[in-house]
Amino acid sequence: MERAKKRRLLSEINVVPYIDVMLVLLIIFMITAPLLTQGINVDLPKANAQPLENQKDEPLVLSVDRDGRFFLNIGDNADAPLEDSVVLERVSAVLRRNADTPVVIKGDQSVPYGRVVVGAALLQQAGATKLGFLTDPKGLEDERGRRQRR
User: Fold this and answer.
1) Domain boundaries, the chain
2) Which pairs with CB-CB distance under 8 Å and at least 24 residues apart come from 49-55?
């Protein structure tokens, strides 16, 4: 019985395994975070426009690259160019589910204007009633600064 009295309970928590797991998760997130960035590189036109208000729904973005190819930010592969008919089908499906989804066109400044108009017409055929255009306000300020220094 004396042996039972001498033994004390250990009331400390060993946190070393938790720290190891946390560091492994940190490394995994650091490696995967840059891979999650998706999108099409588009040289946006410069314009003096006000930013849109925060919207509750993520906008549907139709990107038009410098070669005039269409891309949507929805679907399995957002980096794959889409045919006009596929754009029409996908946008129609999204707008049938939620007609209030904001629709935006992100056109490269070097793409022919007619190709952006074709994209806007496809969006209207799909049921989009309001269209927005993405611009690059920072670039405009840079151009103004360069022009004033000359």
Assistant:
1) 2-36, 60-140
2) 49/135, 49/137, 51/137, 52/102, 52/132, 55/102
Res. 27 pLDDT band, cuts 50 70 90: very high
Q: Which two tokens stand for residue 81?
A: 């160019």
SS3 102: coil
CATH class of 60-140: alpha beta
d(CA 31, CA 129): 41
- pLDDT for 45 equals 63
**pLDDT digits 0-9 by tens, 121-138:** 898 888 888 888 887 766
Distance (Å) of CA 21 to CA 13, 15, 17, 72, 142: 15, 10, 6, 37, 46
Summarised one tens digit per residue, pLDDT across range 34-76 is: 776 655 566 666 666 666 565 667 888 899 988 889 999 887 7
Sign of CA dihedral 118, 119, 122, 127: negative
Helix 113-126 crosses helix 84-97 at what angle (to 10 degrees)? 40
In the numeric block, the tokens 């707008």 are attached to: 95
Answer for the pair 36, 51: CB distance below 8 angstroms, yes or no.
Answer: no
